[in-house]
Amino acid sequence: MLLFDDEHSKNLLTVRLHKYSIPVTESGCLIWCGWVNKFGYGKISVMDKGRWVHRVAYEIEHGPIPSGLDIDHLCRVRCCVNPNHLEAVTRRTNLLRGDTVTSAHAQQTMCKRGHFLEGENLRIENKPGGLKARQCRECDRLRRRVRYRRKKVVSNGKRGFEIMDVVV
Ligand SMILES: [Zn+2]
Ligand SMILES: [Zn+2]
């Protein structure tokens, strides 16, 4: 299903997508800095509905995703929205690819945004109950750099907020 019905809404969506994304020069990944779930997949709101941001990025660049196909991240960074890192594949191919030793290894050594969790970049955080969590300093920095400005809006008679700006 196409997520925008005309060029104008496509352009607005493209602008929003890029506003909340930061390129990683070494890998070419375009990292989504908006909301991500615990598995690292990002969402963007399109006409009041949360949509997977990598699928939106794919459709903006390549057109509608054929029904029944999944979008696979060739770079294995789940919050990457660089359309050149995305490929429409059958679910079977996606599951097979995701099951490789490389991807299992990648999950241990990288944070959910794809930064290497080692050396200077690794910060161990003490959690209640003596638990420890591996945190990423690069993500700490991103979080500090990204500030949302919200504007009150009324659309279709509904009150809500729209994210207006990110100060980077
Ligand atoms: Zn990527
Ligand atoms: Zn990180």
Structure classification: alpha+beta
- Neighbour order of strands in the largest sheet: 1-2
Poorly predicted parts: none
The H-and-E topology, N to C, reads as: HEEEEHEEHHEEHEE
How many β-strand stretches?
Answer: 10
Domain count, please report it: 1
Overall pLDDT metric? 80
Task: Estimate the helix proportion, in percent.
Answer: 25-40%
Biggest sheet layout: 2 strands, antiparallel
Distance between the termini: 33 Å
Tally of individual helices:
5
What small molecules does this complex bind?
Answer: zinc ion
Strand content: 25-35%
Output the radius of gyration: 17 Å
Net shape = globular
Protein described:
With 168 residues, the chain is an alpha+beta fold. The chain has one domain (7-166). The protein is built from five helices and ten strands. Strand 7 and strand 8 (132-136) form a beta hairpin. The model has no long low-confidence stretch (mean pLDDT 80). Bound molecules: zinc ion (2 copies). One zinc ion binds at residues 29, 75, 77, 80, 82, 85.
Q: What can be said about this structure in brief?
A:
The chain is an alpha+beta fold. The chain is built from five helices and ten strands. The protein has helices spanning about 5-20, 55-60, 90-100, 100-110, 135-145; strands spanning about 20-25, 30, 45, 50, 70-75, 85-90, 120-125, 130-135, 150-155, 160-165.
